[in-house]
Design a protein that fits this description.
173 residues, two-stranded parallel sheet, 4 strands
């Protein structure tokens, strides 16, 4: 503020509550799973991963996960929630790949969350029960239609877009 300038006001955003939404998507198979938790805790993530391993893919030898580097998205979270032998059993089924920092747009689940936002969450939903019901209906519709993700990003694109992550080599003559 300086003398003689117009008064400036700043609008305050009032957060009326948040939840954590976990989303799994099998991009080529068209299988989707969404769940809502009141918090974003390591135990919540661990419970979702156990559901993935034991309910969604109980017979799979290996489940390939691609996800962001959120602090709770770590194998250690399974040990916080389950006894060591159970945590280890689940971890042995997983092959985890993390997207680069600031690269969540590479994560197909983020694409799914974007679709979910446009189709289902374009307004405030005041009650967690109503949110769960609406997301459950949305998930059922996605699974009935076996909605797939047409992932277009290729290695050659990555070498251009993510060039800062690739090492550079110089030849000495």
């Amino acid at each position: 503020m300086v003398p003689g300038s117009d008064r400036k006001t700043d609008s305050e955003y009032v957060r009326n509550g948040t939840v954590s939404i976990f989303a799994f998507v099998e991009p080529l198979g068209g299988t989707h799973h969404v769940s809502v938790h009141e918090h974003r805790r390591a135990a919540d993530w661990a419970e979702e991963i156990k559901y993935l391993a034991d309910v969604m893919y109980p017979d799979a030898e290996k489940i390939i996960l691609v996800m962001d580097n959120l602090n709770t998205h770590k194998p250690a979270s399974l040990y916080k929630r389950y006894p060591p032998q159970e945590a280890r059993r689940i971890i042995k089924k997983l092959e985890i790949h993390y997207t680069p920092k600031h690269g969540s747009w590479l994560d197909i689940a983020e694409i799914e969350l974007n679709v979910m936002t446009r189709q289902c969450l374009s307004r405030r939903i005041a009650e967690i029960g109503q949110l769960r019901n609406e997301l459950s209906a949305w998930e059922a519709e996605r699974n009935i239609s076996a909605a797939k993700v047409n992932w277009q990003f290729r290695t050659s694109d990555a070498r251009i877009k993510l060039s800062s992550l690739y090492p550079t080599f110089t030849t000495v003559s």
